[in-house]
Design goal:
Blueprint (H helix, E strand, L loop, with lengths): L5 H13 L14 E3 L12 E13 L4 E15 L3 H5 L1 H17 L5 E3 L2 E14 L6 E15 L3
């Protein structure tokens, strides 16, 4: 059986990482579902994170080293079930985004994702929607994961 693709290993490790966003781990939000496909968001599966499409940009160095910048799109969703939550939907979404950022930034220095040493994890862009799917709200984040490997790997 062939070895799993490195990008797949990073996806799996990333999913495990963001699955740790729970109140028990000191966050304000507990992620209920993490998935690879953006599917219909059912209320009982929210808050959720979907790790969607990605592209891999490679920079080759003369030392047979390749630096990859994996750019992924992550979609997060929440739902307000009570009148009190509906009145604070924007605050709930901002809290979820803060938890997502804190989770990734806490691991951004050096982290092994999928067995690869990740040099950097950044979130350069987040777009929010607090009204179109009301009483649900979502964000779309661009996440950059930079790692290096030997060209022969």
């Amino acid at each position: 059986m062939p070895a799993p693709d490195k990008k797949e290993l990073i996806y799996v490790a990333f999913a495990e990482l963001v699955s740790g966003i729970t109140v028990a781990n000191g966050f304000n939000t507990t992620v209920v579902k993490v998935d690879r496909q953006h599917v219909q968001m059912r209320d009982e599966e929210l808050p959720c994170l979907f790790i969607n499409d990605a592209f891999d940009e490679m920079k080759h160095y003369p030392t047979e080293l390749v630096e990859h910048t994996l750019t992924a799109t992550v979609i997060g969703g929440i739902v307000a079930l009570t009148d009190e939550q509906k009145a604070a939907l924007g605050t709930m979404l901002n809290g979820f985004i803060a938890d997502f950022r804190r989770c990734l930034m806490a691991t951004s220095v050096s982290r092994h994702l999928g067995g690869l040493l990740t040099r950097e994890i950044r979130i350069p862009r987040i777009r929010t929607d607090e009204g179109f799917f009301w009483p649900k709200a979502n964000f779309v984040a661009t996440v950059l994961m930079v790692y290096r490997e030997k060209a022969t790997d």
